[in-house]
Amino acid sequence: MTHNMAFLSCLLLSHRCDCCVINMVQMEEAKVSCLSLLTYHRELLVSRLRSIQCILDNLLAGGFLCEEDVEIVQRTVTKTDQVRKILELVQCKGEEACEYFIFIIYNVHDAYIDLQPWLKEINYQPSKEVTVMKVVNTDPISRYCAKLRHDMNRDTSFIMSYGQKEETRLEDLYTDTVVEVLNNCNESLGFLESLDQLLGDNSVFNPQGEIIYVMGDAGVGKSILLQKLQNLWSKKELQTDTIFFFKFRCRMFSLFKDTDQISLRDLLFKHSCYPDHDPDNEIFDYILRFPEKVVFTFDGYDEIQEHVDLMNVPEVVSPEDKASPLQLLISLLCGKLLKGSKKVLTARTGIEIQSTVIRKKVMLRGFSPAHLKVYIDLHFKEQEHRDLVSVQLNASPYLCGLCSTPLFCWIVFKSFRHLHTMHDSFHLPDTCVTLTNIFLLLSEVFLSRLASPAPSLLKKSTRCTSETFTAGLRPLAAFAKLALQSMERGSFICNQEEISACGLTEEDLPLGFLRPVSEIDANGSPATFEFLHVTLQSFLAAFALVLDEQAAPSSILKFFTECSRKRQQFCLPVDFCISSSSRSSEKKPFAPNEHLQFTNLFLCGLLSKINTGLMGHLLSPVLLRKKQALLKSYLSTSVRSHLQGLPHHSASDGKVVHVLSNFLWMLRCIFETGSKDIAQMTAKGITAEFIKLGYCNIYSGDCTALNFVLQHRKKLLGVDMDNNNISDYGVMQLKPSFCKMTVVRLCVNHLSDSSIEILAEELCKHKVVKTLGLYNNHITDAGAKLVAQIIEECPKLRNVKIGNNKITSVGGRYLANAIQKSTSIFDVGMWGNSIGDEGAEDFAQALRNHPSLTNLSLSANGITSKGGKCLAEALKENKVLRIFWLVQNELTDVSAPHFAELIKANTGLSHLWLIGNQFTVDGMRHLAEALTHNMELKEICAKGNQLSEEEEKEFQSEKRLRFH
């Protein structure tokens, strides 16, 4: 026994020794493996290794090469021979040098992206010894990326639109806005939760497209959103693998001379960021090979659309070819150049481009009430001011609506803060607030900087606006002249010569109207300037038209007539993606051309009766009255002509007219004038019983303009405002007009329960409403209770659409009980809520013996066979319902016999939609057999249930059972 134990011990000891020998052999093999790898994969490395300098720098710094070795490599003519020479030198230095060589490739990932698959193939894992060795990334690509980030961080960390001496940190004031994601048909797909999602693949409707299209109204925050996106990337806080990020403003492309020709390389390196260390042209080569690592932002496409329209030149398809800058831009956007890179393009709402080049589309909707509260807290540090501003905003729905647009909100808050520091008492305007008033307020703030500083710390007790404008008339007139001249030549940029020619001095520039936009010239001054915002430029151009005492008074109408010559909108940049074609001109006094339209709008505001007192201090009262009379006459004639030209058609609601966005500009101009005469004439000129304003991009501030006209209408009117952006603020402003509305359609308008509260109060008071459309808003059970009140108390109400909201079984019960009591209700749409089986049971009770309900949709409500059985049973006691939709629920074969019994009861039901449920062939057999007992039922739509194509063929003889 002892002998055997000793033998086993010797055997185990021998085995351990063998293992040690084997492990030592494996370790020895591991030591030579890096050298062997370089030998075995020599040709692969020679063909794929690109960034030579980074390898040399690190081998030299690590002591594996000397200066003489580096010079030998650099004297070698071709890059492949340089790689061969490096490999020879490294292998001569031994295993440690070979592993460090591989470790450099492993560590500097982006520079050696072509060799990353090779590292995986050899299953490379750096040893402990090599991981402590330092690798410095001197690769030109990585250096260039670092430079891009540095420059972009410098350029985007401050908000420069606050006057030259008032830089504000982006992070101190940036506030998120509502960013809605749209599909190809401009239907909502939801909202962005973070800017990371903007560049991501979610909500992409066209994977072949190149453009992420960001739309929004003037001042809604398109530029600042891009700035935030760029700033996040510069700080590596954006979730993206983008290596190169190039930012451009579209207006830059219109500043080149007609004869200028640039290449893609010029655009990136001369007009964006120049690479300091790239002797072998590795950066541009990398960009061409990996365009998916590149993001462009192009801000303000609407500013160059007319320049693009005038082009009729071939596309640029070679990255080396020179072409006009606009050609280059269009070729980039269409994917002819650098296909696969991402391009974020911003433009004002209404500038449509071909969907074939759009990858994703978003619409900026401005501040929500929650965003506005955050912005107030950021803007005002003192709680006293926060409370004061909040109270004053809540007291003025129109001002609150204006402040949902970030630019206008900034002007209001800046004015409040500035003037509050200067005067003992300053409140936000609370009556008749127009856009002109907002920009007059901003101008007053800028001009007040001319005032001499107070001799003491005491505030000035009184505020005199006319005194401020009179004192600042010289620079104001000069800025206005500059704005008008720039507008006339279609430019948004002005140089020193143009500035001086208008009478502006160096002392005038810091007032805030202008900001520098280019590099410093030879004299140490900014070479070019732009106005704080293009809308401010439009305002000042209008001011110039009013102040000009030399030109004929009729010259104030120049942009109205200019707009009448503008073409209808068209898609851009289609010409270069498809073909170019001529387009006919149409004379329309309110045709879309937004920069000029804003000038016209501000002209109406400046010449309004309410501003006569101020303007009378700035020009001859006689000339002022003459210009006011001319404008009023022109507007009256144009409005009358426009209304007479609107196409009408007859419908069940009477004579219907569908207006377009130019009608909206007309309303805006009328509101700015404050003229009751023109408003009354407009109201009288709307002869239709039903006016459709859907898809007109109406925002909350426009509702005051619409109300200003509708309040003068004496007859009842149906109003369809579906698919706009009126929000709760807009509903508040429309409150006085609901008494006249027989049709109130506010679908897809971002309404909450607070809007429904206003509707319930007004509609129940006047009881004239026949149709109520609230589909796809943010209505909860509390709002559903208010809609139920409207259904109960409005005896003429026939149609209610409240689908795709946030209504549960609780809200479903309120609505069902109200419908049960109504003797007028005809059509109810509840598609896309969450009433479930409980709600279905309540609706079943409402359906029993209902006298008037003919159409009902309970689609997409989470109804199972339990709720389906209740509905089927109840409908056997209903002789009125004709169309019943139960699409996209969870009905199974369990409910099929009950629906079969309903069909056999022959109640008069003509259309039963069961698409997208869970019926199998067995359930369908029940329905098919029941149809043989009912000749009145026209169709059962059963597409998208759990039947195979073969099983569907079983029912081919029953044409009313449809699967396609």
Automatic annotation (TrEMBL):
<keyword id="KW-0433">Leucine-rich repeat</keyword>
<dbReference type="InterPro" id="IPR001611">
    <property type="entry name" value="Leu-rich_rpt"/>
</dbReference>
<dbReference type="Pfam" id="PF13516">
    <property type="entry name" value="LRR_6"/>
</dbReference>
<dbReference type="GO" id="GO:0042981">
    <property type="term" value="P:regulation of apoptotic process"/>
</dbReference>
<dbReference type="InterPro" id="IPR007111">
    <property type="entry name" value="NACHT_NTPase"/>
</dbReference>
<dbReference type="GO" id="GO:0005737">
    <property type="term" value="C:cytoplasm"/>
</dbReference>
<keyword id="KW-0399">Innate immunity</keyword>
<dbReference type="GO" id="GO:0045348">
    <property type="term" value="P:positive regulation of MHC class II biosynthetic process"/>
</dbReference>
<keyword id="KW-0732">Signal</keyword>
<keyword id="KW-0677">Repeat</keyword>
<dbReference type="Pfam" id="PF05729">
    <property type="entry name" value="NACHT"/>
</dbReference>
<dbReference type="GO" id="GO:0045944">
    <property type="term" value="P:positive regulation of transcription by RNA polymerase II"/>
</dbReference>
<feature type="domain" description="NACHT">
    <location>
        <begin position="210"/>
        <end position="350"/>
    </location>
</feature>
<protein>
    <submittedName>
        <fullName>Nucleotide-binding oligomerization domain containing 1</fullName>
    </submittedName>
</protein>
<dbReference type="InterPro" id="IPR032675">
    <property type="entry name" value="LRR_dom_sf"/>
</dbReference>
<dbReference type="Pfam" id="PF17779">
    <property type="entry name" value="WHD_NOD2"/>
</dbReference>
<keyword id="KW-0832">Ubl conjugation</keyword>
<keyword id="KW-0391">Immunity</keyword>
<keyword id="KW-0067">ATP-binding</keyword>
<keyword id="KW-0547">Nucleotide-binding</keyword>
<dbReference type="GO" id="GO:0045087">
    <property type="term" value="P:innate immune response"/>
</dbReference>
<feature type="domain" description="CARD">
    <location>
        <begin position="36"/>
        <end position="102"/>
    </location>
</feature>
<dbReference type="InterPro" id="IPR041075">
    <property type="entry name" value="NOD1/2_WH"/>
</dbReference>
<dbReference type="GO" id="GO:0005524">
    <property type="term" value="F:ATP binding"/>
</dbReference>
<keyword id="KW-0963">Cytoplasm</keyword>
<dbReference type="Pfam" id="PF17776">
    <property type="entry name" value="NLRC4_HD2"/>
</dbReference>
<dbReference type="InterPro" id="IPR027417">
    <property type="entry name" value="P-loop_NTPase"/>
</dbReference>
<dbReference type="GO" id="GO:0045345">
    <property type="term" value="P:positive regulation of MHC class I biosynthetic process"/>
</dbReference>
<dbReference type="Pfam" id="PF00619">
    <property type="entry name" value="CARD"/>
</dbReference>
<dbReference type="InterPro" id="IPR011029">
    <property type="entry name" value="DEATH-like_dom_sf"/>
</dbReference>
<dbReference type="InterPro" id="IPR001315">
    <property type="entry name" value="CARD"/>
</dbReference>
<feature type="signal peptide">
    <location>
        <begin position="1"/>
        <end position="19"/>
    </location>
</feature>
<dbReference type="InterPro" id="IPR041267">
    <property type="entry name" value="NLRP_HD2"/>
</dbReference>
